[in-house]
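User: Fold this; tokens only.

Assistant: Input:
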Amino acid sequence: MGLMSNAETIFAIEPPVAILTFNRPEARNAMTWAMYDSLMAACEQVDADPQVRVFILRGAGGKAFVSGTDISQFQAFREPKDAIEYEKKIGVVLGRLERVAKPTITQIEGFATGAGCGIVATCDLSVATTESAIGIPIARTLGNCASSGTFARIVNLIGPARAKEMIFTGRLVPAPEARAIGLINRVVPKESIESEVMTLARDIAANAPLTIRATKEMTRRLMDARHPAQGDSDLIEMCYMSADFKEGVSSFLAKRKPQWTGA
């Protein structure tokens, strides 16, 4: 078994699978900049290792897959470029994850919110426990916005009307409903999720690698054609430089309800 770990992520290769575990259970696996870098590094290693046929992503602790980006990091945002560079970085990370040549599976236990939902939407397949929930609740928590790439992936999965409803309301979608609308693939009991994910991964790994690679790349190209890239810097600046976003961050960290003004 190949193993590469740090304080916040654990990356292991157990042919034919590679497993990345987001390892901040005390913070519901909220993503730090270092964790995003580790995700990028894991993608590189997965593509470089011919023994790896499937890449599994999961969260430690059983209460969350990933609960978004660590909000405390947003306190340093002062200028439009801070927000634009942040979303650009997320776009680079998710873009690299999307281009991994091997099938990717998210193993969802508990919440997958914000950037966690973005990771789920980027990966090929997702398996969740019956108690899990997924969504992007920023309209009722932070008052920021996600990049056009993240929104496009969600729209590709569930359509524009459902995507807008999910974002507008800030509601977290329970796993059975998320499966019904196409946001995730399977829902299984909590006690069996690890074995279910591993069985799925091994079933995929036993099949023709080039057929799988071509199918994945063709799907990516079709989805790109449906949503041509457009600039989103103006929208990111509008949200992240607002008084509402400052209020959202401070209220989140203070564990109080935000007071929105629309400014």
